[in-house]
Structures are given as C-alpha cells and as structure tokens.
Specification:
- This protein has about 190 residues and is mainly alpha-helical.
- It has one domain.
- The protein contains seven helices and no strands.
- The protein is globular and about 50 Å long.
- About 40% of the residues are buried.
Length: about 190
C-alpha cells in the first residue's frame, strides 16, 4: 500500500458516491481516480486493469459531456433501462470480449490472472458505458465486477484496493436502489 493507492481509493470512493447521487461532479473526480489507478495497475502488472483505466478515461469524458448536455431540453438525463435486444448484445459482448482479451493476455503477457482480469475489465467497460448513458443495468454489472475484483485484489495483496471494492460493492447496491427509484419516478412522470 502506498500513497498512489491511498489517493486512488479516496478519489474512487468520492466519485462513486457522487455517481450514486447522479451528481455530474462524479466525472472529474473519477478522472483523478483513474489517473492514480493507471499508475498503480501498471506497477502491479495488471495490464487489463491498466487498459481499463485508459478506456475509463475516454468514457469519463464522454459521460461528463452526455450528463452536462441532456437531450430534448431536459434538466438532466433520466435513468432508463435497456430493451431485451440490447441486453442480449451486451451479454454477447461480455463473453466475446472476455475470451479474446483473456487469450491475448495469457498468450502475450505475464499477466497474473488473465481471464479473471479480463472478465472484470470487460464488465467494467460495459458498466461504465451504460453508466454514462444512465442505464439502470450498469449497477448489476458493477455489483458482479466488484465481487470478482475484490478477490483478485486480495490475491494480488492490494489490500486497500480490495477493501475499496467491497465499499464499491455496497455503493453499487445503493446506486441500484437509488437509480431504480429515479427510473420509476421518471417513468410515472
């Protein structure tokens, strides 16, 4: 555990809390978290997690823009859900992405846990994209990824980060409940 991990954890917690509250400041605070985690994951040789942070950086700027510029003159972007076809596509993307990334990492790098790392990376990319679009399903994906990531970080002796992911798990459950309430309110309005 070092200062980079401590700062990454602090900004990560702050960012997720703001996301649960649908506060647009989740994006710039999250970008700071991402920069710290990029350094930490590179040092831990968790290359899929490092790549994930790069993708998160891009998706964070996208989400920040999307949340600041809601369509149709609305005050804010509403929480919505995906249709069945989008859910099927998302699941297929998860399976395909995990297999391809896991194979590449196991074949061409010294990755520690290539398929587990890849599965959470692909889940997190999908969840981050869905979060940027305020899709309720993002939280169920975050919950699954947080459970697996907690185990990976314990295995890699990144103890503070594993604790962070347990807290993320709790926040993801709170986020699911809060966004579900927001979705229901918007649906009835």
């Amino acid at each position: 555990m070092d200062l980079i991990e401590i700062l990454g954890v602090a900004f990560g917690l702050w960012s997720v809390w703001l996301t649960v509250k649908e506060n647009v400041w989740c994006w710039p605070i999250g970008i700071i978290n991402i920069l710290f985690f990029m350094v930490m994951f590179a040092n831990a040789k968790l290359y899929a997690d490092f790549l994930l942070q790069v993708i998160f950086l891009v998706l964070s700027f996208y989400g920040w823009y999307f949340w600041v510029h809601p369509k149709s003159g609305k005050e804010k972007v509403p929480v919505t859900i995906m249709n069945l076809a989008n859910r099927a596509f998302t699941f297929g993307t998860f399976i395909g992405g995990t297999v391809v990334m896991g194979y590449l990492l196991s074949t061409y790098t010294d990755a520690s846990v290539p398929y587990w790392d890849s599965s959470t990376t692909v889940m997190s990319i999908i969840a981050q994209f869905l979060m940027s679009r305020k899709k309720l399903e993002c939280w169920a994906i975050w919950i699954t990824a947080d459970v697996i990531d907690t185990g990976i970080y314990l295995y890699k002796e990144l103890y503070l980060t594993s604790i962070l992911y347990l807290v993320f798990l709790g926040l993801a459950i709170v986020g699911l409940l809060a966004w579900r309430k927001s979705w229901k309110s918007a649906k009835t309005a």
